[in-house]
Amino acid sequence: MITDTANEIRAIDDLLGRYSRVLDDQDWEQWPDLFAQECSYTVHTLDNIQRGLPLAYMYDDNRARVLDRIKFITEVWAGTIEPYRTRHVTQRTEAASLDGARWTIRSNFQVSFTENDSLSGLLATGYYEDVVELTTDGARFTSRAVRLDSMPARYLVYPL
């Protein structure tokens, strides 16, 4: 028997999978659709968090900034950056309901990168701390906090 909780977890896992696919396919126009209207996306190293330093690699604290990130990738930086492909491997490790419509999710990740068809390398490892909202339209991130184990192997252009 499938319970409501099982369906909710399935919707969350679908969101996590779509997120990786959108980034790996560089389908930038779809990335904001993974976020709720009120949302945030941040990337910090664990070292900065543990030391209480607010410095972030990416700090998009509202939907307008999430949309701006895509504009920078597709328009502002286009032709000025060394492009690379990514491959995300993600594993959900925790899921807890906050109030039925919102869940806290923690997932470990590894992201590899490939430049100019050269050998692939490990770009970043860490975990995501998410708040996911479930609606009749599906699951969306209200908050995605990326926690990097260490500095990335190269500069970050694309979301992780």
Task: Give an overview in words.
The protein is 25% helix and 41% strand. It has three helices and six strands, in the order αβαβαββββ. A hairpin with a 6-residue loop joins strand 4 (102-114) and strand 5 (121-135). It is globular.
For this entry, give a set of tags.
160 residues, alpha+beta, 3 helices
Question: What's this entry about, in short?
Answer:
25% of the residues lie in helices and 41% in strands. It has helices at residues 4-24, 46-50, 63-76; strands spanning 35-45, 58-60, 85-97, 102-114, 121-135, 138-148.
Beta strand count: 6
* Parts with pLDDT < 50 across at least 5 consecutive residues: none
Strand arrangement within the widest β-sheet reads 2-1-6-5-4-3
| Strand residues, percent | 35-45%
Mean pLDDT score, rounded?
94
Helix vs. strand class: alpha+beta
Please, what is the oligomeric state?
single chain
Shape designation: globular
Backbone CA Rg: 16 Å
Distance between termini?
36 Å
Helix content: 25-40%
Set out the fold topology.
Layout (H helix, E strand, L loop, with lengths): L3 H21 L10 E11 H5 L7 E3 L2 H14 L8 E13 L4 E13 L6 E15 L2 E11 L12
Parallel strand pairs: 1-6
Antiparallel strand pairs: 1-2, 3-4, 4-5, 5-6
